[in-house]
Design goal:
Low-confidence stretches: 1-22, 380-385
Strand content: 35-45%
Number of domains: 2
CATH architecture of the largest domain: Beta Barrel
Radius of gyration: 32 Å
Largest sheet: 12 strands, antiparallel, barrel
Helix content: 25-40%
CATH class of the largest domain: Mainly Beta
Number of helices: 8
Order of helices and strands: HEHEEHHHEEHHHEEEEEEEEE
Oligomer: single chain
Structural class: alpha+beta
Distance between the termini: 48 Å
Mean pLDDT: 79
């Protein structure tokens, strides 16, 4: 009898991995788009001014080289983090929360904080370290691309099939051990039969027959589960290699504060600029997108060259408006062009100026992006001696596991 009980227990234990089989309901998305760090923006060194709202990664590092024909080490660095996904990802496990375009989820998941630093020389040849602190919030981030919705439906269908198979197996085990009429009758005879030796042999034979039946059932469904598992892995691998995309209207609001440290002395810290701006536009499934920028920057006791080439030191405002056009997936490249118009406030004899640039981005690897920018700056660039923009920006994204 003990042997029969042991066989029953062993069968149930062996069955457990099959019953609890379940795939990981997260996936590493290819989230990174050509970044526009608010920290770089407030410092006035961002190669691209008009940001394209996108789904942020947990952590993003950017290195920019825009000096001496790219022959020296970069002097500009930026890091950007998403507090929600970096620190509270365990509380956001539902696909419905991730795909949502509701205001609450947009603000929670789209909030990023960035820090940027750059080093340059003042007019007195004094080396100055500048620090930019920026915050960005997504108000509208668009709807999930239909491709991802289709793949998500495929995954959900596979998971539903797996649940059905496990339910059948569980039901079969219950039927075999709890509802087999012959086994039930033999067990009942144990209370009335004086000699249990022969009865035990009958029970053991019946138990072995049932075990063989279960083994056959397990092999049959094990193959089905394996095929379902492989299918799920292939779907997730396909999704993982796709560029994550949201379609429709998008709106980000951002702001920043710029500080500097003359002589690299912390005690000489000074706030020299603050500002706020918004980016809004529309992204189409075809790869085209158009975005507009509205921005106000306040400069505090800064030098500016007026139209008579006089150097003035005063506080003044910049009112910037502009736009950009993006096109994705051109042989693996993303091409964009932008133009910004700048109006000066609280300063005389300074005409409005503009900035225009062409940006080309290439994904070196998943969530690793290199962007080259060439164009015309607002004012003379101290590192190139003119108003030419020529910059390389390397962005490295970390943390892209999301519910799926």
């Amino acid at each position: 009898m003990k042997k029969i009980i042991f066989l029953l227990f062993a069968t149930i234990v062996i069955s457990q991995p099959l019953l609890s089989q379940e795939d990981d309901e997260t996936i590493s998305f290819d989230l990174l788009r050509a970044p526009s760090s608010p920290g770089f923006t407030i410092l006035g060194i961002n190669p691209t001014e008009v940001d394209r709202p996108s789904s942020p990664m947990d952590f993003l590092a950017s290195i920019q080289n825009a000096s001496d024909n790219f022959s020296v080490y970069p002097k500009s660095y930026s890091v950007e983090m998403n507090p929600a996904w970096l620190f509270f990802s365990d509380k956001m496990k539902k696909w419905s929360d991730f795909k949502s375009n509701k205001l609450r989820e947009n603000i929670l998941q789209g909030l990023t904080v960035s820090l940027a630093t750059t080093t340059n020389e003042s007019q007195d040849s004094i080396e100055v370290t500048n620090l930019g602190v920026g915050v960005k919030i997504s108000i509208f981030r668009g709807e999930i691309d239909t491709n991802f919705k289709g793949y998500k439906n495929d995954i959900d269908s596979i998971r539903e099939d797996v649940k059905k198979i496990n339910k059948i197996i569980s039901s079969s085990i219950n039927t075999v051990y709890k509802e087999d009429s012959i086994l039930i009758k033999l067990r009942q005879e144990a209370f009335t039969t004086p000699d249990l030796t022969e009865l035990a042999k009958k029970i053991e034979d019946r138990q072995k027959y049932l075990l063989d039946s279960l083994d056959s059932l397990k092999r049959e469904f094990k193959d089905s589960l394996y095929k379902k598992d492989e299918l799920a892995k292939n779907v997730k691998k396909t999704v993982s290699n796709l560029k994550y995309q949201r379609i429709g209207f998008k709106l980000d609001v951002a702001g920043g504060l710029a500080l500097n440290f003359p002589f690299d002395n912390f005690d000489s810290l000074k706030v020299f600029k603050w500002g706020a701006w918004l980016n809004a536009g529309y992204e189409w499934h075809s790869g085209w997108s158009v975005f507009l920028l509205g921005r106000y920057l306040r400069n505090i006791d800064r030098s500016i060259i007026d139209d008579s080439n006089n150097v003035l030191i005063k506080s003044f405002g910049n009112l910037d408006v502009g736009g950009s056009i993006y096109f994705d997936n051109l042989f693996g490249f993303t091409i964009s062009g932008e133009i910004i118009y700048r109006h000066y406030q609280d300063v005389n004899n300074v005409k409005a100026k503009y900035k225009a640039s062409l940006n080309v981005s290439y994904e070196l690897a998943k969530n690793k992006l290199l962007t080259f920018t060439f164009g015309r700056d607002f004012e003379g660039n101290t590192e190139t001696g003119g108003n030419v923009i020529a910059a390389l920006n390397l962005a490295l994204g970390f943390g892209s596991m999301r519910p799926f």
